[in-house]
Amino acid sequence: MSGTNSANITTVDTPGKLRKYMQDPQVRAAVIASMWDSGDLFYQFRPYGQTKLADFISRVHKDAPSPLPFVGETHRRFGKSYLWLNILVMRCLSRPWQLTKYFAPTEKQCGKIVRSNLPRILRDCPPHLKPHKSGLTWTFRNPELKDGGVIPESVIACYGTNEDPDATRGEASDAIVLDEAGQMKRLEYLIGEVLVHQFIRRKDPLFAMISTPPPSMDHPFITKYIPRAQKAGRYFFMPASANRDCSHEDKAVVLSEVGSKDSVGWRREMECAHITDTSRMVIPEWQKVREKSIRSWSDPRYFLRDICFDSGAKDYTHALFAYWDFCERKLIVKREVWGQYMSSGEIVAMLEEVQEELWPRQTEIRRFADAPLQQLIDFKKDHGLTVYPAEKYDKDTALNRLRTEIQRGGIIIDPSCVQLIYQLDNGVMNEARTKWARSDTLGHLDGIAALNYLSRMTRRDRNPFPDALRDPDTTFQLSVEENKEESSSPVEFGGLLNRVFGKG
Questions:
Q1: For the chain, is the Cβ count within 10 Å smaller at the N or the C terminus?
Q2: Percent of the chain with pLDDT over 70
Q3: What does the pLDDT average to over 360-365?
């Protein structure tokens, strides 16, 4: 506060003093007007979580300006959209001729985000700084930036990415925010082919990606951009348990609906845990039994060997090597192998290599596959490999059987089967829940498809143990050859005992 001379000036150098003087309506109005003129709206942020994130962005970007994206994971109702939209407003008011863009998965969603948050940001904006709205573009003019008689214009424009990722191709940008990036389709294409080029020859560009966890942890927001941001020191993480702004009352409201802090809803949405959305998972039962279902398994003395694969070209060819443990009533998946764009001969070589390593010198192995009839014929005629067609009728019933088999702990998967495990962890249905979703790393869930065929076609009712088998550790039994000799040449009982116990 200033008076007629320096003796009347009071220095406000702490947040506590500022809050004290801001209680005076006149002082508050003057301070807010000054902050708007300078493009400093930090006073609008909540005192802990939002302020902490805003300070982090300001500090890191000042120390290491770069178009590398900031990546933030925050709990629901953190106010991430409000915060980042506020940052774009500040940029438009503090720098001339700024071209900023706000993206969401759909244009409708983007418009809804901006229209619900921007009025709150502008609630105490001086009239001369209020933006002009045209469609989904807001134009700001700040007289404080006047240069040569011209007041520069800066804009915030909104776009949906899923409808047309090329909508802004060729344009320039000074700041870009991707909201709910975990829900965006073709995210890598959008960033690598369209957006990063917009920063060329722009001064001090700013790029940010924010999201709650996507439905599948296979999304590049999780697999690519979070690790990259962590390595670059541009990653921010704020779960509800670490945010003092999230009150006990707020948490109680959520807990009343999701049940407990151990629920998937709480862990995903409030603690930002990387858990696939079970409501869209192909095998939702997997999460609860995962830990006990992934383990090494000692082979029984006798078992029937199966190789099943789902054949693909652009999709993966994924083969599983498995057997049914007759005594334990479990399907044991021992090994997997998979590849892409493979000829029939390459598939045969791939199967035989693993077969020889896993089950050397075994000839009684049954093979079946989901493959075109012509390919099955080629396997037999050109490569001498008999492969039966997989039973594909009534897929929903077969999948339900697989789900209940997994639910009861009836399927054991060797830890070496990393791709199958990854598919079970992250495989989801498409948004319409009519088909299995595809991705570059998951393919078309070809490993789950092979497991589904195995669950249906494995020989559960066939006993692999020979007749009259006895436990070799507790019972003496003649070999087949010895048994033939004894039947033609009887041995006295005493002589038989001597043979058993090694007495001459």
A1: C
A2: 88
A3: 88
The mean-pLDDT minimum among 162-171, 284-293, 340-349, 462-471 falls in 462-471
280 lies in some domain: no
Give the per-residue SS3 of 327-368. CCCEEEEEEEEEEECCCHHHHHHHHHHHHHHHCCCCCCEEEE
Domain that holds residue 73: 42-258
Q: Same domain for 68 and 216?
A: yes
Examine the pLDDT at 488 and tell me if it is beyond 50. Answer: no
Q: In what order do the strands lie in the sheet with 70-74?
A: 132-134, 137-141, 153-160, 99-104, 175-179, 206-211, 70-74, 235-238
CATH assignment of the domain containing 357: 3.30.420.280
Q: Are residues 386 and 444 in the same domain?
A: yes
Residue 276 within a domain: no
Rounded distance, CA 71 to CA 55, Å? Answer: 15
| Nearest one of 411, 408, 399, 420 to 331, comparing CA atoms | 411
pLDDT for residue 359: 94
Same domain (yes/no): 344, 409: yes
Nearest CA-CA partner of 287 in 221, 217, 183? 217
For residues 198 and 217, membership in a common domain is answered with yes
C-beta separation of 45 from 51 below 8 A: yes
3-state secondary structure of 417: coil
Instruction: Provide the Cα torsion 58, 105, 165, 222; round to 10°.
Output: 60
Backbone dihedral angles phi then psi of residue 3, each to the nearest 5 degrees: -115, -150
C-beta separation of 114 from 156 below 8 A: yes
What pLDDT does 473 receive? 57
User: How many independent structural domains does the chain possess?
Assistant: 4
Residues 132 and 219 both lie in one domain = yes
Do 204 and 60 reside in the same domain of the chain? yes
pTM confidence score: 0.73
List, in sequence order, every residue forming a beta bridge with 209; answer none if it has no partner: 71, 178
The arithmetic mean of pLDDT across residues 440-458, rounded, is: 91
